[in-house]
Amino acid sequence: MRDLNKMRIISGSARGRQLAPFQGKNIRPTPDRVREAIFSILTSKLGSFTELNILELFAGSGAQSLEALSRGAKSAVLIDADEYAIQVMNENIKRCRFESKAKVVKQNVFTALPQLVHSAPFDLILLDPPYNLNLISSTIEKIEHLNLIAENGIICAETSRAETLNDFKTLKLIDERIYGSTKIHFLCLF
After folding, report:
1. What's the gap between Cα 23 and its chain centre?
2. How far apart are CA 84 and CA 155, in angstroms?
3. Order of strands, edge to edge, in the sheet holding 149-160?
4. Region for residue 92 given its phi and psi (left: phi exceeds 0; alpha: psi -120 to 50; beta: otherwise)
5. Which of 57, 107, 128, 129 has the fewest C-beta atoms lying within 10 Å of its C-beta?
6. What is the pLDDT of residues 161-170, one digit of tens each?
7. Are 104 and 91 contacting, i.e. CB atoms less than 8 angstroms apart?
């Protein structure tokens, strides 16, 4: 059993709230220290999370979106196809008291994305697909094709250290960081 009782919200209105523990390998959380670094970088690039619309793909525990909501984001859509991940997300949303701000969608990401056009654009898109399955570039290409990212928005994508991104038509890589076996990519529109 993978015990994640130490996962928590780092900052904002839900600071210190413990997230639900879970078991199994279908959810691979971003450790608190890496999430803290990501949100420090995002804060320097976005300025503030106030009133941002968030989209989290391959959401797992939902910790990334919940961190953004805790820091003032207006809303979050969390998508994952795994039933157990959906249960964990819903529990975490309740623990953080963000039921009115977070919408959970149990669906394959590639099926869900076209249905989000009416909710777009998103100011911050977080994605953390299973590592080494060649999902990262195809997901970003779909986001790009559907114009889901806001003009001044950022895509924050997590991959294994070995994975690389394709070149994109309208998106550019603005930063990249490595934390152990994890690589974080930050992209925005040209």
Report:
1. 20
2. 25
3. 102-106, 75-80, 53-57, 122-127, 149-160, 182-189, 171-179
4. alpha
5. 107
6. 999 999 999 9
7. no
